[in-house]
Amino acid sequence: MRFGINTIDEFDVAGKTVLCRVDMNQPVDRATDTLKSTQRIEACAPTLKELSDKGAKVVVLAHQGSDIEYQNFYCTRPHAKVLSTLLGKEVKWVEDVCGPTAREAIRNMKDGDVILLDNVRFCSEEQTLFELKLKLSHEEQAKTQVVTKLAPLADLYVCDAFAAAHRDQPTLCGFEQVLPSAMGRLFEKEYCVISELMEDPAKPCVFVLGGSKISDAFIMMETVLKSGSADLVLTGGLAGNILLHAMGRPIGQKSIDFIYAKNYEEYIEKARVLYEAYPDRIVLPVDLGGVEDGKRVEYTPDNVPEDFSAIDIGSETIRMYCDHIAKAKTVFVNGPMGVFEDTLSEDGTKKIFEALGETGAYTVVGGGDSVTAAKKYKVTDKLGYVCTGGGALIRFLTGEELPVVKALRHAAR
Ligand code: ADP
Ligand code: MG
Predict the structure, then answer these.
(1) Closest among 53, 76, 59, 64 to 20, alpha carbons compared
(2) Which atom in ligand 1 lies closest to the alpha carbon of residue 334?
(3) Atom of ligand 1 nearest to the CA of 213
(4) Residue 3 falls inside a structural domain
(5) Is 299 in contact with 287 (CB distance < 8 Å)?
(6) 139 and 66, same structural domain?
(7) Quick check: helix, strand or coil at residue 369?
(8) Is this prediction's pTM over 0.90?
(9) Please, what sign has the CA dihedral across residues 233, 236, 240, 244?
(10) Is 368 contained in some domain?
(11) Domain for residue 385, yes or no?
(12) Whose CA is nearest to atom 4 of ligand 1?
């Protein structure tokens, strides 16, 4: 038991049928029916292997999103192929979630077998739109099709989908109402790392917040400054621009237009209040990078041209941030410092990630684009921890109890 949740150690799984919900949601290349990244599958494979090695019949449940949200969900066939390679044994793919075919396949399993059911989001009850519109309680989720059809065939439910722990959906929160339940090894590890980061980080602890998901960035900034877990928050990306603008420093008209075009004007006032509450702990960029006539240019706020578009932090800011990172004991990064997808505006992000690779601090990176940046600059192996779940991580850092954590705690009681 950890954090009031059962671990796999609490159960003897040999000969038992275990429903294991994982998060293997990855970008798909439809033309070749393959996955563009297998990071999340690699991350949850150890739990599946452990259960199988201990003689459980492992029924894997997973979702796969798509480029167009709420439409055209993709099947989990490519995931089964990758999983077979990782586990070194055939993982049978079942083209069904909870209908007769799926149930028949589960009944025919032998000890140690692993099967992967099709995309759980083919069930409408499992879709995010359904979740947000209907807000089913966990008891109600236990009465949905997928739970009532599959739970009677299983002895144990294991959730290893930390990346989806902020979702309130039947395959994540419903089974805990009717089956003994535990968290998987990846869930345990991710939960442990971020709990420590929030409760007792080695000091000084520096948060580097950038990117363009402004609501998340500001909630997180406020939480970690208030709780004291962050000694310093180094800002960049769109978040940095909004703070600079809020404090009356010039960032260029194009940057301001972008803030309004994104409907982020409400954050300007929030940014001002936040900065005035913590002027010594929120660090603003001292110079900015952009592109003019196909070349990189940099300006300090007092000489920014009228119609400038700030899409990166400048060299002096980079130097200052890298210095803070080098001296820190804990560094958490969410959101790139600039539009790193373009070589002319990647400097900030590139050098910050390189500094992460070199610092002696414990480093944690979360968020989809930040993880991509870590890969791009080849520092993933040098990081203390790369969180597979952006949304879950951020909600945890804002102090909310995650729905799946709540459900797993309920099961443990
Ligand atoms: P993460 O996925 O790591 O949580 P976000 O999704 O919040 O990060 O932000 C990533 C995106 O932010 C990137 O696509 C990047 O191009 C963009 N970005 C970074 N800085 C700026 C900026 N100054 N202006 C506009 N977009 C930016
Ligand atoms: Mg992102």
Answers:
(1) 59
(2) 3
(3) 7
(4) no
(5) yes
(6) yes
(7) helix
(8) no
(9) positive
(10) no
(11) no
(12) 367
Between the CA of residue 21 and those of 86, 117, 152, 281, what are the distances in Å?
Answer: 17, 10, 16, 40
338 lines ligand 1 (CB under 6 A): yes
In a domain, 312, yes or no: yes
Give the CATH number of the domain where residue 101 resides. Answer: 3.40.50.1260
Q: How far apart are CA 373 and CA 353, in angstroms?
A: 8
253 in the same domain as 176:
no
Instruction: Decide: 237 in ligand 1 pocket, CB within 6 A.
Output: yes
Spatial distance between the Cα atoms of 315 and 309, rounded to a whole number of angstroms? 16
C-alpha–C-alpha distance, residues 360 and 392, integer Å:
27
Q: Contact 411/6 with Cβ under 8 angstroms?
A: yes
Distance 365 CA to ligand 1 centre (A): 14
Q: How far is the CA of 162 from the centre of ligand 2 (A)?
A: 17
Pair 209, 253 in one domain: yes
Pair 230, 172 in one domain: no
Residues 6+ apart with CB under 8 A from 28: 34, 35, 36, 64, 66, 74, 78
Best of 37, 212, 334 for a ligand 1 pocket test (most atoms within 8 Å of beta carbon): 212
**122 and 67, same structural domain?**
yes
Question: What is the span of the domain harbouring residue 33?
Answer: 8-187+401-412
Amino acid at site 282: I
My answer on whether 210 and 291 are in the same domain is yes
147 and 29 co-located in one domain: yes
The Å distance, Cα 349 to ligand 2 centre, comes to 14
Residues in the chain, overall count? 413
Domain count, the chain: 2
Q: Is the CB of 367 under 6 A from ligand 1?
A: yes
Q: What is the pLDDT along the chain (413 residues), one digit of tens a residue?
A: 999 999 999 999 999 999 999 999 987 888 888 898 898 899 999 999 999 999 999 999 999 987 555 556 899 999 999 999 999 999 999 999 999 999 999 999 999 999 999 999 999 999 888 998 999 999 999 999 999 999 999 999 999 999 899 999 999 999 999 999 999 999 999 898 888 877 889 999 999 999 998 888 898 899 899 989 899 999 999 999 999 999 999 999 999 999 999 999 999 999 999 999 999 999 999 999 999 999 999 999 889 999 999 999 999 999 999 999 999 999 999 999 999 999 999 999 999 999 999 999 999 998 878 988 999 999 999 999 888 667 788 778 777 789 999 999 999 99
* Domain co-membership, 34 together with 99: yes
